[in-house]
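Notes on consecutive records. When two proteins share a document, each keeps its own sequence and its own token line. Never mix them. Below: protein one.
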Amino acid sequence: MSDETLHILWTNDNPDTAEHMVFMYATNSLRLKWWEEVHLIIWGINTRLVCDNERLQKLLLRFIEAGGSVSACRQCAENLGVTARLESLGDIEVIYMGEPLTRILKNGEKLLTI
């Protein structure tokens, strides 16, 4: 990842925060070229929230269409019983996120936590 990559770690399960901060900033960051790359990490209860909320699914799709990449915590999805549903939403990398997040932190990459 380049120095122009922003990772957003999304752990807040408030749908309004997701719509009016996470997806708004992430998508506009790409469209307006504030960042070259934006990588959204879905972690915790949000793995279920995004599966259950059609509005957030549409916003997620818009983010992906704008060029964003998405990873989701496989362990969280397994614990919440939504792995297949999450994988069916589209271009989402569903992986065990502990090691990748640790690598992001150790490499000093840009990480916004919400």
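Protein two starts on the next line and is unrelated to protein one.
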Amino acid sequence: MTKAIRGLILMFLLAAPSLAVTRAWDGGGTDGNWGTAANWSTDVAPVAGDDLVFPATAAQFATSCNIGFFTTFNTITVEGGTYTFGGNPIRLANGINAVGGTPTFNLAITLSGPQTFTAGTGATATLLILSIGNFPLTIDGTGITGIGLLSGSGTITKNGAGAAAIIAAAGYSGALILNNGIFVVDASIPNSTVSINGTAPMGTLALSGFGGTGTVGATTVTSGVISAGTLTSPTGILNISNGLTFTANGAYVCKIGGTAPGTNGHDQLNVTGAVNLGNALLAPIPWGGFQPAVNDTFVILRNDGTDAVNGTFLGMPEGATFSGPLNSAYQITYHGGDGNDIAIKRVARAAFDFDGDGKSDISVFR
């Protein structure tokens, strides 16, 4: 072999990317540091590019990354347990898989490429600080993923039957897409557009939808459900900037738990910009044992300024009376509140023909 060929081979080997090595935590060291070799099953501490695995059983669950600031690891898998991850900020190349347990990532995580975070059944993954840059992030699985403080401009797509929550944000402006499960936003992200594409709204009202008590940008409910409230306060006010548009396959589920909008009250969508109802479904549902009295009025959609609401909800023209849960009835107006809000009023009727067959469908409303 000539020197030239040997030189080329050496250059190739030096330039070739290193393969990720899997390092499994056992917590066998005297501290919880990632840099302590005895904390890993092979007694070798991880380095940049490695895959990190944290088993459901270990000698200790409190861990701290004392490896260099913003070291890039490939993936993190948590198989169970009550892990806490502190220490230096890291970069992540290919996602997090919380198979089980309740991992809490108190260290800051920055994405270095497109990736997926998955939480398995029964798992709750909490990320205190997450910067996604301009990379797309997919949140998947049947568990819960919570983000404490989000920044960046990449698109976040929610797949899987589980739940995801964005609690706070620092300048985040990326688009949000809901395809399945529950997606809650309590952060103020008025420049983030929202696309709701949930499946089968009539069959999954309690299982699939977008909500929260924060502020989001222009929102389109193509199919599936929009509501308000958060995981810890089921009723609330969701603020929407730059308009709200429904299609006929969309639904607004409004929980009625009190006479005032907000926590311990009823849901309200507070919209600036145009409102287009598109013959979507409106479903007011009782909440928390509250029973509205006759003439109780609920402003369920607050519309800004002087722009009128465009269209109506399914089968509900102006002034229509419709059947509600628990043998109740409501009357709707698109000129409530200050004149261009949507309000429903609990009404009492001795009899009403809801289906137009000439016969009373409900004899007494209470």
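For the record: The CA atoms of residues 116 and 193 lie 20 Å apart.
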